[in-house]
Each structure stands twice: as C-alpha cells, then as structure tokens.
Design a protein that fits this description.
With 206 residues, the protein is mainly α. It is 48% helix and 7% strand. It has 8 helices and 2 strands. Strands 1-2 form a two-stranded antiparallel ribbon. Helix 4 packs antiparallel against helix 8.
Length: 206
C-alpha cells in the first residue's frame, strides 16, 4: 500500500489493510524475519521426521498418556464434534502391532523384491517405545451429516482436517515434553489395518 492508497482509505472511512505475499518469501532464498522469542515457533522448528527411532523415554508412561490425552481434548474440531479418537500402544501391544499385524498385512500387498526393505522399515518402527493411533469416530461424524444435510458433503473433510491438526499437535507436545527428533516418527500414509474396524476410511489395498 502506498501513501496515496492509505490516504484514500482514510478519507473514505474504510480501514486500511496490510497484506503480505507469502509466495514471495517461499520463492526466495532469504529467510523471513522471526520474533526474538516465540515458544510456539521454537517447538515447531525442533520437530523433524526421523526414520530411525529408539525405545528410550524419559517420562513415566502414566505422565506420557496424560499429556497426550490433554492434547486430544484441546484440539479444535468442526462444529465442535470432538470426534477424534486415539489408541496408545505401549510395550508388547506396540511391538505386536508392528511385528505381527502390520507385517502380515503388508506381506499380502508387497512384491518379493521390495519385501526385505519393507521388513527393515517396520522393524525400525517396532524398536520404538510406543505407537499412537489416531482415527475419526464415524458414528459421530456421519450423525452430524444426517442432522445437517446442507453440509453433509463437508463433514468427512472437516474430520480429516481435525485429525491432521491433532497429529501435528501431539507431535509438538512430544517435542515440548523433551522427546528428541530421533525419538518421534509420524505418518498418515501407512497402509495397514488398525484392527479396530471403527473408521472404515483407510481404503486398505486400494
């Protein structure tokens, strides 16, 4: 906005609006200016995807579970549906998910030459301390769609958006709790059966 634009806005009684072209910064090599201290951005910067994880955990499991549950209750959802659910697997339940259930499901859809690499990747996940499964309670989501048919086509998208926010928020919480980047891995692409039969939207094998 130039000076004339600002003057015209003031004369017309309309509020002046400052806009920022985010694509300009994305296409340049210059890093955007950051606030001197921003705890939220600090946690976001420390979060990274690491494919080799370990079993170390500096917190008692009870404290870890409580922290993850608190995040679940605070993440927003469309129409305040609160349809997001999670299952926390630790110990033998975590290892069985990867070493038995996941490997069995993937073996059916993985070609022979790719199988050794797939096994190696799954065994790395099994070496972690636990697994957090996130899903949408479709009974809640579909129920809202029936009550409000005008928006029926949108509720699944809203639910998926809330799940994305929940996954990211849980990841940031783990970072804030002191988990290092080599201790956390997240994916929304793993093609496996959760064993719950609740969501029905993962399209296994498609």
């Amino acid at each position: 906005m130039n000076e004339n634009d600002e003057g015209n806005a003031a004369m017309s009684g309309k509020p002046s609006v400052a806009t920022t072209d985010l694509t300009a910064g994305a296409l340049s090599n210059a890093a955007p200016a950051m606030p001197a201290a921003d705890p939220v951005l600090d946690v976001m910067r420390r979060r990274r995807s690491i494919y080799t994880i370990g079993d170390s955990c500096g917190l008692p499991d009870e404290q870890l579970i409580a922290a993850l549950e608190n995040v679940l209750h605070e993440v927003p959802s469309g129409w305040n549906s609160q349809s997001q659910r999670m299952v926390i697997l630790l110990g033998d339940a975590h290892r069985r998910l990867w070493n038995e259930i996941t490997l069995a499901a993937l073996h059916e859809v993985t070609s022979g030459e790719r199988w050794p690499r797939t096994q190696e990747k799954i065994h790395r996940f099994a070496a972690g301390h636990g697994t957090l499964l996130l899903f949408d309670d479709v009974d809640v989501t579909d129920g809202l769609a029936k009550k409000m048919p005008l928006y029926a086509d949108n509720f699944t998208n809203w639910a998926n958006a809330s799940l994305g926010m929940l996954e990211y928020a849980e990841w940031l919480e783990l970072t804030e709790l002191g988990f290092e980047k080599h201790q956390v891995y997240t994916t929304m692409e793993l093609r496996m059966k959760c064993g719950l039969g609740k969501c029905g939207r993962c399209n296994i094998g498609d």
